[in-house]
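Per your request, structure below.
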């Protein structure tokens, strides 16, 4: 072998070693860089399969999934799976995923309060509730929500909770915000106007510009006064209901009521959005008092008032009484009694008909009234419910609220409409 041949062989060996070195590097690179991509693709493929609503319609929110399959994913959190519509909402004969949706003519039956009026409810509409839609359980976007396990609530629990509601009512009128002119004391059966002047001499306009007051005022002109007339709300009027309830749950009073009822298992088995739906159902859901017409709700009866034949029914809210007195529709006849703090028994004529006795807690905020009446309606329905208020000196005093539930229909199996609620004056 010549020297030249030996150098050629050595060079070939070196090149071979270099080639093997490069190949080893490439192999290591492929393992480090490419394998995770392959693994990621495999995991992604699995995730795509899991991110479907198949078998998940109306389940509680599952944070291991990238999308959800219940009504709140559509109405609030906007995190529905791409097949939510096709999988969960095309069952023509079920309310699964459709509870309280607007009219949709592509379905053969409907799932909102109006379907009872028109006779086109799905067979499982009675199961609709914020705590559990037909076919499963509804949960919000990640909130653990309240428990569905109801626990016993004592009378003392209600006294303590109502005391907190009173103390948290930061939107209550200050002493200088309202001036009343009681004039003559009278009986609830008198037809004589013993008080020629209005009951309200002055209400601070700034008080009525507070958020919950403004939103209450937006609502009170949405109703027919005389029973027997269908209440048909526009989209804007439904939005006013939601706006009022949004403001309610954002107040300290509304937030406390939610937490208290949630801890006891009475808040709708879910997050605050489902609690809001519970309050909306019991207060704003329509039912029929006369001639089969969807003519009334708890809110209308208590906060607005109704003409029932030749008398006034309901009407226990001081803001509405003030507004109607200002408009000339209400003529104050006198008071039947007074109890500190600011609980008046009022006797008046409204739209030409007499109201014998309206028990009205003057000066308290709309959120307080909704909260304390809801507390008693949910925990002591159809009874006298003792609550704690504070007098002018800050001392605790007890008053009674009478609650009545509507028995002929209900918004869902786990709740009843408010028929009436008022302080016993």
């Amino acid at each position: 072998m010549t020297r030249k041949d030996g150098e050629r062989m050595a060079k070939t060996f070196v090149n071979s070693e270099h080639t093997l070195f490069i190949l080893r590097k490439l192999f290591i690179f492929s393992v480090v860089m490419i394998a995770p991509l392959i693994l990621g693709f495999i995991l992604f493929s699995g995730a795509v399969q899991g991110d479907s609503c198949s078998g998940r319609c109306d389940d509680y929110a599952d944070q291991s999934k990238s999308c959800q399959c219940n009504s709140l994913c559509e109405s609030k959190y906007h995190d529905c799976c791409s097949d939510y519509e096709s999988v969960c909402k095309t069952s023509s004969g079920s309310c699964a995923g459709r509870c309280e949706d607007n009219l949709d003519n592509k379905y053969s039956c409907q799932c909102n309060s109006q379907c009872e009026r028109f006779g086109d409810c799905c067979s499982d509409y009675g199961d609709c509730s914020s705590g559990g839609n037909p076919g499963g359980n509804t949960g919000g976007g990640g909130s653990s929500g309240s428990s569905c396990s109801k626990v016993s609530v004592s009378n003392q629990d209600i006294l303590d909770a109502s005391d907190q509601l009173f103390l948290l009512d930061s939107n209550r009128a200050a002493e200088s915000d309202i001036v009343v002119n009681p004039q003559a004391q009278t009986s609830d059966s008198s037809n004589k106007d013993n008080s020629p002047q209005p009951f309200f001499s002055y209400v601070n306009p700034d008080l009525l510009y507070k958020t919950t007051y403004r939103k209450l005022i937006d609502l009170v002109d949405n109703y027919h006064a005389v029973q027997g007339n269908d209440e048909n709300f526009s989209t804007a009027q439904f939005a006013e209901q939601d706006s009022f309830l949004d403001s309610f749950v954002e107040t300290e009073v509304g937030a406390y009521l939610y937490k208290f009822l949630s801890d006891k298992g009475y808040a709708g088995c879910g997050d605050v959005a489902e609690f809001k739906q519970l309050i909306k159902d019991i207060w704003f859901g329509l039912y029929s008092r006369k001639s089969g017409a969807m003519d009334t709700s708890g809110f209308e009866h208590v906060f607005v008032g109704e003409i029932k034949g030749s008398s006034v029914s309901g009407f226990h809210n001081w803001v509405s009484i003030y507004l109607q007195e200002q408009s000339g529709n209400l003529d104050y006849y006198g008071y039947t009694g007074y109890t500190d703090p600011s609980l008046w028994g009022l006797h008046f004529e409204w739209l030409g008909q007499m109201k014998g006795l309206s028990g009205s807690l003057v000066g308290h905020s709309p959120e307080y009234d909704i909260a304390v009446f809801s507390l008693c309606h949910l925990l002591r329905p159809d009874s006298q419910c003792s609550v704690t208020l504070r007098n002018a000196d800050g001392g605790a005093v007890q008053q009674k609220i009478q609650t009545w539930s509507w028995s002929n229909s209900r918004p869902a199996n786990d709740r009843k409409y408010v028929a009436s609620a008022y302080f016993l004056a």
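The mean pLDDT is 83.

Regards,
D.
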